[in-house]
């Protein structure tokens, strides 16, 4: 049998693809990994110091995700610009029901963290520079053909296309590239009929390291603490759910009027809104793939499932799935099996399926439940929120979901690298 060009090709070098590459370099160093990324990579893009931008896009990291990054030896670098979430406040606008979660009640330093996407990408690239991971960039995967020993992948760079052979292809380029459909995966899509407006905002009161989940008759919104990791600042990351008409209306307003409209929807828990940064937006859809594997190919991250962002579960679910896949690759390599064997990929699917089904149901049910305005349902929501706040067992379950530790163990059952730091040493 002819020698393959590489063992694994990862289509997409964003947060999911780069994290998978780093995890494999740590946990399965014998595998040859090639990442195909559409954006050019340069050492010039990795500055020695990082200056956060006010308009930086960010991601909510659950406590379970911190444990994974610790396992990969990345947290000591990443935590320099990760704002802790010490409290979560969930409420239904205009009604009395509310639930409050506090990290101290669970003997944790934080319930989660908020980190800029660009900062996470820079941290991953810095770590990957010291690995044997190979990069093809700028380039993109445009096709795949199964082989008896694996797959033949078509990689396009500029006007030129060449073929690379590997045991397996992992699609980690999100849900919008079209590669997933090109390879024959079938998706199920539920359109919420809403849009997410993303922006950073400033308020007269500090956030106190509190994340707010606010459900309103016009749709849910979230405000996540952003900025300094050590000082409770006045900046928060906003996720605002809007209908098409409402989005068009908001985007037409001046920044001052945007703040005024936001004030009307959120209230005064953070004082007055004084600034809103650049507004990005995208349509909200629940996208799932019932069969995310086929011989020689696996989907991960948003290519496998895309959730409503207000519950902050998407990337954390993806991260747990990546570690499940890494563990199956490690076992296959130890047993002398091909990582692209359907049996190997099916085990990954089976182990991750319960987690993603539960997380999808949890996230989707919040949106559907709080999207109903009928008085009996509104009263039931209030009772439920109060019950969560008063019943220790229910509150603990809700907290574990929010912290990303409610399902399978987040960290690979594998010896930790020597530079892993312990959360207890903080």
TrEMBL record:
One of its GO terms (biological process) is ubiquinone biosynthetic process. Residues 5-333 form the FAD-binding domain. The keyword Flavoprotein applies. Keywords: FAD, Flavoprotein, Monooxygenase, Oxidoreductase. Its cofactor is FAD. NCBIfam families: PRK05732.1 (NF004356), Ubi-OHases (TIGR01988). Belongs to the UbiH/COQ6 family. This is 2-octaprenyl-6-methoxyphenyl hydroxylase. It comes from Marinobacter lipolyticus SM19.
């Amino acid at each position: 049998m002819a020698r393959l060009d590489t063992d694994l090709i990862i289509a997409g070098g964003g947060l999911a693809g780069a994290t998978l590459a780093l995890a494999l370099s740590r946990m399965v160093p014998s595998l040859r990994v090639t990442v195909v990324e559409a954006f050019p990579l340069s050492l010039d893009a990795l500055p020695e110091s990082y200056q956060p931008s006010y308009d930086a896009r960010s991601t909510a990291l659950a406590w379970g995700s911190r444990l994974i990054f610790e396992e990969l030896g990345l947290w000591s670098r990443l935590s320099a610009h990760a704002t802790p979430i010490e409290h979560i406040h969930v409420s239904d606008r205009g009604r009395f029901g509310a639930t409050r979660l506090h990290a101290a009640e669970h003997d944790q330093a934080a319930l989660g963290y908020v980190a800029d996407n660009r900062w996470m990408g820079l941290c991953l690239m810095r770590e990957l520079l010291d690995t044997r991971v190979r990069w093809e960039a700028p380039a993109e995967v445009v096709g795949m053909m199964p082989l008896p020993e694996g797959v033949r992948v078509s990689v396009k760079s500029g006007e030129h296309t060449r073929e690379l052979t590997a045991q397996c292809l992992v699609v980690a380029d999100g849900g919008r590239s079209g590669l997933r459909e090109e390879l024959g995966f079938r998706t199920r899509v539920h359109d919420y009929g809403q849009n997410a407006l993303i922006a950073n905002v400033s308020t007269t009161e500090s956030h106190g390291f509190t994340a707010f989940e606010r459900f309103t008759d016009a749709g849910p919104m979230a405000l996540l603490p952003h900025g300094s990791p050590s000082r409770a600042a006045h900046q928060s990351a906003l996720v605002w759910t809007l209908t098409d008409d409402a989005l068009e209306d908001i985007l037409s307003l001046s920044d001052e009027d945007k703040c005024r409209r936001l004030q009307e929807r959120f209230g005064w828990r953070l004082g007055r809104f004084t600034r809103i940064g650049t507004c990005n937006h995208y349509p909200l859809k629940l996208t799932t793939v019932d069969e995310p594997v086929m011989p020689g190919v696996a989907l991960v991250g948003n290519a496998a499932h895309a959730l409503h962002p207000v519950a902050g579960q998407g990337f954390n679910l993806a991260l747990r799935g990546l570690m499940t896949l890494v563990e199956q690759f490690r076992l296959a390599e130890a047993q002398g099996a091909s990582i692209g064997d359907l049996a190997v990929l099916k085990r990954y699917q089976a182990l991750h399926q319960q987690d993603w089904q539960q997380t999808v149901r949890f996230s989707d049910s919040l949106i559907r439940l709080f999207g109903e305005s009928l008085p009996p349902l509104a009263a039931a929501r209030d009772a439920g929120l109060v019950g969560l706040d008063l019943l220790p067992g229910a509150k603990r379950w809700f907290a574990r979901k929010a912290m990303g530790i409610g399902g399978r163990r987040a960290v690979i059952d594998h010896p930790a690298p020597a530079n892993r730091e312990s959360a207890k040493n903080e």
